Amino acid sequence: MTDAGDTVARVDAEALQREALSAIEAASTPAELEELRIRYLGRNSPLKLALREVRDRETGMALNAAREAIEGGVEARESALERAELDRALTEDVVDVTLPGERLPLGHLHPITQARREIEDAFLGLGYEVRDDREVETTEFNFDKLAFDPWHPARSHRATFFFDENRLLRTETSPSQIHAMEERPPPIYMVSIGRCYRRDAIDATHYPVFHQFEGLAVDRHITLADLKGTLRHVMRALYGPDRRVRFRTHYFPFTEPSIEPDVSCGICGGEGCRTCKYSGWLEMGGAGMVDPRVFENLGLDPDEWSGFAFGCGIERVAQLKYDFPDIRPLWEGDLRVLRQF
To answer: Considering the entire predicted model, what is its pTM?
Structure first.
């Protein structure tokens, strides 16, 4: 026989369940449904408070049955409201597919990277291998095997970033040429591209960190005319046919004879300005025929093999290509400048 208190508990649970389910069914928005969920199932709701006071099995079963029914009602009404919202959106929110879409802001390649890729394309078209070697080098590969004399100023700690007497940050990508010639016998046609480091004072055309591409061709019967023809082809590919190119004699430790290619200044049209130091020309880099001493250092017969080498800063390429009066904006990260390219 059940006492009167238990009957009241069961009737209260059933009444609470009917009341909750009726209110839930009438909820017309997710916000209303959430308010009802808190009212009937929240921590301080009458149902939860009653469950905490349960002292007998029959009352607990009645209250838990009410709780499960209310939870099921909330889930069912939530699904119904989501379906109704989807149906409304499909019928009322019409999309005009003829309207132009929103233009999303997209990033683009840095001018130095753009110039680098154009350089790679120019040399790949000539059949050259493109490689990027280590940035931490030894004095053996950065100076000794490239025939730098012991007194050469590049060996000074005032010109080069040394870790110790034998290790340094490479001052140019020329060591890649030595690596390539040690890895395999000629013929070799390669260009090395990457970062280099020098203790240069920062100005309109110099920076202590810069990118350089360095090329090497080693084969039989290579002449200075082959070098000049290669450089003219690459410069015209980078700057177009309207820019003038000239070559001047120069000195480099690992080439003999040596030349320096210049390109007419695009900022002043060759008339003279601050960027070109009022000469009308901008130096591109260094080049020349591989010095026989370099071949001898690597065990190659200079009477059988000949070759040429050349190097140029990629920042200088970008400066000449896009008519930058100063290379410093290329390293400052100012988006007002970089977005123009």
So the answer is: 0.64
